[in-house]
Amino acid sequence: MSSLDRRRFLAASAALSGFAMTGFDVAAQAQAPRRGGTLRVSVDQAAAKLNPLLTRVNPEYLISELLYSALTRLKVDMSVEPDLAESWSSSADLLEWTFNLRKGVTFHDGSAFTAADVVATFEAILDAKTASPARQNVGPIAKVTAKDDATVVFTLSAPFADLPVTLAYTNAKIVPAAVIKAGLGRLDREAIGTGPFKLVSFEPERLIVVARNDAYYDKARPYLDRIDVVVYPDISAESSALIAGDTDLISTAQPTEYGRLAKATGVKGLRVPSGQFCNVNFGCDTKPFNDVRVRQALALTIDRTAMVDFVTEGYGTPGNDTPLNAAYRFYSEQALKKPDIAKAKALLAEAGHPNGLEATLIASDRPSLRTQMAVALREMAKPAGFRINVETMPHATYLDQVWKKGSFYVGFYNMQATADAIFALLYTSNAAWNETRWNNAAFDKVVNEARATVDEGKRRQLYAEAQKLMHAEVPSIIPTFFDLLAARREWVQGYELHPRGAVFRLDHVSLGANAPKRA
Amino acid sequence: MIELLRRVLRSPQGALGLVLVGLILLVVILGPWIAPYNPESLAPLQRYKPPSAQFWLGTDQYGRDILSRLLHGARATVVLAVFATALGTLAGALIGTISAFLGGRSDEAIMRTVDAVMSIPSLLLALLIVNLLGKSSLNALLAIAIAFTPGMARVTRSVALAVRKQDYVNAAIARGESAGFIVWREMLPNVVAPIIVEMTIRVAFAVMLFATLSFLGLGAQPPASEWGLMVAEARRFMHLSPWMILWPSLAVAFVAIGFNLLGDGLRDALNPRT
Amino acid sequence: MSPAYILKRIVLVGYTLLVVSLIVFAITQILPADAAVMMLGENATAEALAALRAQMGLDAPIWAQYGHWLAGVLRGDFGVSMRTGQQVGPVMIEALGRSLLLALFSIVLMLMLALPLGIIAAVRRGRIADLVVSVISYIGVSLPEFVTATLVVLVLADWLQWLPATGYVPLTENLLQGLRHLVLPVLTISVILIAHVSRMVRSELVDVLHTDYIRAARLKGLPGRTVLYKHALRNALLPTITIVALDIGYLLGGVIVVEEIFALPGIGRQLIVAIQSRDLPSIQAGALIMAATYAVASFLADIAYARLDRRIQYD
After folding, report:
1. Residue A309 forms contact with B (CB below 8 Å)
2. Domains detected in chain C
3. pLDDT by residue (tens digit) across A243-289?
4. Nearest to C85 among A188, A244, A396 (CB)
5. Which domain holds residue A302?
6. DSSP characters over C162-196
7. Which residues of C touch B105 (CB under 8 A)?
8. How many domains would you assign to chain A?
9. pTM
10. Strand residue runs (E) in A29-122
11. Which fold has domain B10-270?
């Protein structure tokens, strides 16, 4: 359909469905989001897992966010807002948190949402048998109890200031207690949540359709009647579809495609600085990387500005071997490391490798920028005497055989909501995924102290100390951060690209009057 | 040998095939020496260059010279394909000849099993095997060899059956020679000519299969300049520079055409039709 | 064609599938990966692993696992996907349907082009037309699918923007869009088939045209066209049928690459996804269904050949 035809067609259909706009005058329409319509959003890989406690990749998060709610919700500035919890408070020692729940909320199957569902959900999350990623990411929860139908109390094993933020974790979605009792397997095929949309159909490799939940607790939202989540495993096809107007929104655009997208007419490129990064992990307990000088030497071979070009096509910022950058609240700036081959060579010699050393760097094949970075690193490190062999492998094999076990491989991580979340995920000695085995007592101490501190200035100081330690000791090389990229048609309104990478908030999206009507 | 060469040269396919394969061999042998640049070194300021006097075929996402990468990659691409074919042929020839020699029920059983294995598409079989062995060029070689074995066994058997009826085999059986001796010394040498023809054509197929495995990420590993891998990597950058994907694609096709032509030329030379 | 022959062929199809099932099961069982680890991925805990292993019967001896799996397959139960938790059988069968559609279109296109090309080349043997056809077919058989696919996408989808580069729309959902999405994959698969079959038709036809039978017909004064179409072509097509049947095996292999490139959710793509994510039940089902398809196709080709053969002999 040409754009002219489409406009004429829309004018006719708008006249027919005029009742949808009753009460709005033209001026008000410009501010108030228009209701109705179908949004077609594309994702770049299959959403295989539907069970919200087990989702692992961004497209799955996107879908579970539509179907389920959590207690709290992450806003674009990384602070939290109420979701199923209306308000919360903590004891002075930060060991006990009380959450007051929203009343009158129902699940998609019509059953009422109560504190019992929250308790059952967190018990399932904390049960190792469920194998939910949330288990290690929701904070030091010792016990969850229902004080009454609308009040839940979290008892912690250690003081923790960030609990309301960690409860917004992508996997901490509330599911009905009855379903948990009968077996979570049911949620592999259907969705029974309290989210703004209900599941209509689920073809994980191709198309997932959700429709507006009329019983959603917020009467204003969602604005859309329906969302089609379309899977495009081929990134170039995904871009072509948006440019052709077959889709309305690309949830994650690749750097190699972004230029083409941003230039296309009727398309708007979206870009936001983020703490998402690609890193090179060392097994700090394994030769030769247990010698800090070897790690420092490799870090000194990298031209970080060039690396930003190679890995992100310029849509990124150089990293400084700490997982925090300007996108985090507690980022503290340090001098950017510059390549210094002579010093790298000297360090290597000091560490007992005067003739350089050989190592195999493993990179999973998804996403392909892992390999992209590995190959660039290999060449940059060559002059200093590092002979690096790059080995790629399917992501599944990597997860099974290398991840958390290997001593030299490429990692890739989303930005987390807080500094504590990323440190406790990867770098403290009791980290959920302590892949570097750095086990630095001084670092653990400042991070632990920071999580039990409410005072902003004091926390900032502690986190600065933690970043300084990582900068100096290089448990992993973090050469680049990615800007998150996406693209939308101009008629898509209210979409804000979230720097977390795993949060989408599509219930805030609406379609402009010139959007094509989709069947 | 000279006579055979002359006959191959007489047919247009054979002559052209011989020239193309000759060229390919030259590149395989001399490639690394005639390459103008280092195929692996990075050039941050020379990324995505179109063909020019400085870079004849342009540069890739790291600013590496594509021509140099193709010249270096010829070895990985062609030599491995030839080895894989040879290995598969050898195994297939052995099975086929033994089956023909044994005859009767054993022959029936072996051949039915070979047929069964052949009903798994060779690409799928190769994919499964590479996954089993782990991905690397060497394992891709083995996978292709195994995938080729049943087909070669079938071809060899039909040739060997004809040979088995020959007098000299019967004579050897009458002399009471061991089975191994008969298969190895009397039968195999006589089935060699038609097998070589089949093999040459299969090299073309092996080049394609090997490149396909690399394309699917299961063959050569970066930063190798194996051509299939080059195509696979270039796909992501198609909209930044189409040259990156064009050249290695054409190179793979070029090699396959060369071996196909030579194979046909050899076939005509060995058994002229009319 | 006796019933005994058909029965024998059916038994052979059964034997083929048994061998294939053994191979596929063996390969997937010794894959260097713990199925339970694969399934739980990043969040595998010792407790979760143990529970899952018991649930999947991974602690039983291997022959028992094979027996259990085979019994399931015979009942049409291929197990549950490790990746999605869905029943593998229906997913694979649905995917096979899409692949067969792709194959069907490709074979039709191939017959429409390969026969005329082959006939022209044979009749005009040694002339320009023959040369052109043979150059085209040499190039055709030498282009791996991923190269052809790349070229057609670059030219037809990116530069000319006539067709969508990849993706899939069910024909039932939107016929026009569905067909548009099928054009490039069909084109890609057909190239090698057309090249191969037109060469076959040419060489068979050239042989037949030189037989005494055809010479005699010519001498009798029959018009050239009649000789060509009524006598020569029929005899030349026979071996071609066998080739087409053999090409189905090739076609199925090609489908894997083409579906991967064009993101067409057929059985080939399912298999690649399954292999990449080590989803064992899906690999087993996909490989077995593919082999079964091939075995059945070549069985049908055999039967067709036998029928045609008799008719021609007594013609």
Report:
1. yes
2. 93-314 (1.10.3720.10)
3. 888 899 999 998 988 998 999 999 999 999 999 999 999 999 998 99
4. A188
5. 273-482
6. -S-SS----TTT-HHHHHHHHHHHHHHHHHHHHHH
7. none
8. 2
9. 0.81
10. 38-43, 72-74, 80-82, 85-90, 96-101
11. MetI-like fold (1.10.3720)
